[in-house]
Amino acid sequence: MVARAGRRVYPLGLHYASLRNGTANSYLLYHAVRRSLGLFRDGTPVPWVSYLFPPEILASYRLTPLIPEVAATTLGGFSLVRDRLDGAVNRLPLSRDVCSYHRVALAGVQEGLIPPPTICLGTSPLCVGKEMFMEQVAADYGVPFRHIRVPVPPDEGPTPDDDVQDVAQQLRRVHEDLGAATGRRPDLDRAVRLSNRAVDAWNRLAQARVEGEVIVGGREAFGLTFLSQILWGTEAGARGFEKLLSERGRSDLMPRGFADEQGGASRGGRLRLRRQGASAAEAPALGSKARLLWLHTVPHYDPTLFSLIAEGGAVVVLEEMAQPHADLLDPDDPFSGLARRLVEHPLWGSSARRARLVIELAKRGRIDGVVHFNHWGCRHGVGSVPVLREALREAGIPFVAVDGDALAHESQEGAARQMEAFLELLTSAPRETRTLTSAGA
Amino acid sequence: VARAADLPQAYGTGPSIPPTICPYAGYIARAAAAALHEEPDARVVVAWGCDGMRRAGDLLSTTYPGRAVCLQVPRGCDDDSVRAFTGSLERLEAWLASGNGSPFGTGAGASADPADAHAPAPDDSLSPGFFDLPAPQEPNGLFVVAGPLSSDALFVFLAERGVPVSGVESCTGPARREALAPLTDPALDSERQARLLLETIFCPHRSRPDRRALLEQRLRQSEAAAILYLRQSFCDPGAYDSLMVAGLAGDIGLPLLELETGFPFELDGPLRTRIEAFLEGQALGGRTTAGDTDDLFLDPDLFDL
Questions:
Q1: Element (H, E) at A402
Q2: pLDDT tens profile A1-11
Q3: What number of C-beta contacts closer than 8 Å exist between A and B?
Q4: ipTM tops 0.85
């Protein structure tokens, strides 16, 4: 009864907040939470999907995806259930060296805190561990598991069309099968149209961020795109991302500490906008702040690293994970576009490809330093660090890899010391001499 | 594998992957780096089904461009997976024949005609890395499911205690060598090679229903009395596979002991104690604990400090 009442009251609170401040962040949060809570209703299809599974395919049937990584993060943020969840995680008969997103999601569903799946839909990207996890959950609940086999893109240049079409065909089949499984009529045209609106808005903002015209905090942008993965292809998703194009709509995405420097409040502070038409070189710099690029996931609950960054005279202006939805989908051939987006995700492919994309992004965004968050249990992310480190060293871009757990609540002291040393390096040396790579692991 | 196990120090300063990645992948990377370093004509293919091996392959291909490549291995052995893997093998074969570029990138090797490739000469190169059991397999014994094992130490240990082994499921075990033997047939075309490889992957990364069916069949056929699961540390497929095997053991009524191991495999004191206690509990083995205790006191190594 209490849980049911909570599920009604919580979204009402979010709705009020989104109406009150009118920001994209609160609007998307409200709709993502409201739809996710709808998954608890009896008889509602609950598709558990890989983080990169194209949400438009689900939106075509008005299905809300349950992304285990997002569900685990959201759930862990509720203090009311934290002890119960921690206990369930500790009781899992699963190795502790496995990714904590997946361990928490598995514990959450077993504890009844996350709705169980009616189908599990995986993709090869980003990791094999997640596919193993999804298949485990599917087996536990006796539901189908469908896997989209995705080839690795070449290190340079576009993916061969045959590879893209192979993936497109698999997506097409899954889309058809979802219709048969749910008995719903598809409307992929609508989902594609709404997805393109969101992508267009996000691309415009992303371009402005890279050019230095608009400052949006990396942690905040990561959180926004992470959660709103649920909403791509929906009306709420399109509206939410379009809100980012107004100053008011993005006013709570300021990087911490930046607004303070400008004399504003850290929430709702003013944005710093370059005047239209000015070149990137003329763009007002972030004062004395060093511009950082954040790679991989973020510590969701522990603010220590970002506080240190703010206090250490730096700001995260770009992040790797929020770059994926680059191209608009062709309404006449959406599956090819969805497939190419999947194959060519920045974190899929070889470490050398990832390093090349990171260096390109760092150069375009006039980045002073790159931070990689070594999330506990993530083999593909952490495993690419040696190649990344070497490539960034050759490119003369300072780099640090900090160890941590994205879902840890407590402060991670080792990571904090690594970050402090890195920030000292960045802020004590003139920009042109900051070529030392990696103060960390 | 044997070579990798001998090289922990000599190549410790070469390319290395982080410690939270599967140690087996780390050893493979070091061994391959040693081969590439010592033999200028050597080339390495890293077949990966997990993220640890994928990143080990990345490290090698970046460190030794044009001489090391990664080969993605699908999880399933359905027709689509076989078709995709056949294409990869053909591109790989062309690369081996042409000698430059990258088979899966934009290099010259990618466009070479697979028909021009030379079939690899059959040899006994499948032998290194596999081990034989010291005693024949018997029913009513222990069935061992493991990741890569660097030696037969466990099986010698079991044989010394008179514990029968009913079967071994490991990528370095004798059953896999037998299953892969037909690969040396030069008449085998790429598609049949691909199918054979995907059907004989003794690796927990493979699709769960396939893996479960295979294990259930092997457990029933071998008439095993108990299962010992040696789970490789920092191995995601192994972590979930052990859950599956635990469920399977429960379903068919076999006792199970799961232990975490590293690579190289070290049969250290705690591991021996756990295994002995399990064997004793299942009444497996012909020797008593008292006998082991006598051995312990008589073991001169105990006093060799």
A1: strand A399-404
A2: 545 655 666 66
A3: 136
A4: yes
